[in-house]
Amino acid sequence: MAAQPQFTNFLRLEDMAAIPEKSIQTYLQFKGQKLEDSLNNLVNTIILYHNDGYLITLDSRVVQHKDFSWAMRLTPEDLIARVDLRGAKVNTLMTNYDLIRMLLLSKDDLSDELRTAASKGETEKLAKILLLGTNLFTVEDYNEVMTLAGAGNYKGIVEMMLARGANSYNLTMLTAAAGGHEGIVKMMLARGATYYNVAMANAAIRGHKRIVKMMLEIMAAKQIKPDYNRAMRAAATGGHKEIVEMMLARGANNYNETMNRAGIDGYTKIVEMMLVRGANNYNETMNSAAAQGHKDIVIIMLAQGANNYNEAITSATLRGHKEIADLISNYQATGKLY
Fold first, then answer.
1. Taking CA 225 as the corner, what is the angle to CA 231 and CA 180, rounded to the nearest 5 degrees?
2. In sequence order, what DSSP letters do the residues of 237-272 get, joined into one string?
3. CB-count exposure of residue 165 (10 Å: 0-12, 13-18, 19+)
4. Which pLDDT belongs to residue 211?
5. How far apart are alpha carbons 171 and 183 in whole angstroms?
């Protein structure tokens, strides 16, 4: 084994991972030694003991760190590339706390950091993790990051992942559609995403009319039959009356399921729209509305002829909606709503 450097009071990696950010200089600095030199010593020690399976020194003793099995698969050249960030000066870049901490993480932990940075749109931090994870991350990692970035409308991160070979175009389009992020939806369409109907439904449930219309136009141009009923049900679930009307105008006719979806979340106007068009699943809708505490819709269904009283009373009672349970019981006994 190579000669051990004469460091004193050097920290183990597991100690380093728990260091508060504000205390990083105190923990890392050797007595009378500049911080950048201490960091450089850390890097040199990791490289020095790489081939022998040892990764750090503590009070002049060498200790093995089992959690670094992933590092053992790297060549010394790979490790140096990870540490000095492709030729950048270590003693400058390593003064960043996040960078120090990420250097100490396992591959799984580093992947978690990558996903967290993507979901928060932390582009600079994500770029640093990617550099540290050279030879560790796969296309599957990049795909997951791109999907998360699509949900958050982080276009720069999406572009970074595309440059690295990410190809989860459909999933990213779906998360972007749900968030109403037209730009990223268009990026994925340009790359070949084809889940038009699912994207339309994802947009419909959140009320993103422009993306719904975009999908309709694309499917018309490609002579693909849109799933109007699916989009209408989704819109009803989210209470988006205009999109429901848009689908009805194009031929959607799943009135019963749409009325039940609206009944679950208390969208009375959509329930009434479906009744006008012939929806007649009064009992199912009453039961759904009773379970969720939507008194107005329960009354509408009773007035329409719903008569599965006991099931609706049970549903209301189990969810703590005593007023609705009593209303249905009274109607069952007297035939009166009030």
1. 40
2. HHT-HHHHHHHHHTT---HHHHHHHHHHHT-HHHHH
3. exposed
4. 98
5. 15
Parallel, antiparallel, or unpaired for β 56-58 and 61-63? antiparallel
Answer yes or no: are the C-beta atoms of 127 and 39 closer than 8 Å. Answer: no
Question: CB neighbours of 315 closer than 8 A, spacing ≥ 6?
Answer: 287, 290, 291
Q: Which residues pair with 58 in a beta bridge?
A: 61
Helix (H) or strand (E) holding 106: none
What are φ and ψ of residue 67, in 5° steps?
-70, -5
Q: Across the strands, what pairs with 57? A: 62
Q: How far is CA 281 from the centre of its chain?
A: 36
Q: Tell whether pTM > 0.85.
A: no
Q: Which residue has the tokens 């369409």?
A: 189
The ranges assigned to domains in the chain are 1-102, 105-170
Measured over the CA atoms of residue 289, residue 291, residue 295 and residue 298, the dihedral's sign is positive
Which three-class secondary structure state does DSSP give residue 56?
strand
Residue type, position 159, single letter? E
Whole-Å CA distances, 220 to 17, 216, 223: 55, 6, 5
Rounded to 5°, the CA angle 101-103-109 comes to 80
Token digits for 183? 């730009």
Chain segment 201-257, per-residue pLDDT in tens: 999 999 999 999 999 999 999 999 999 999 999 999 999 999 999 999 999 999 999
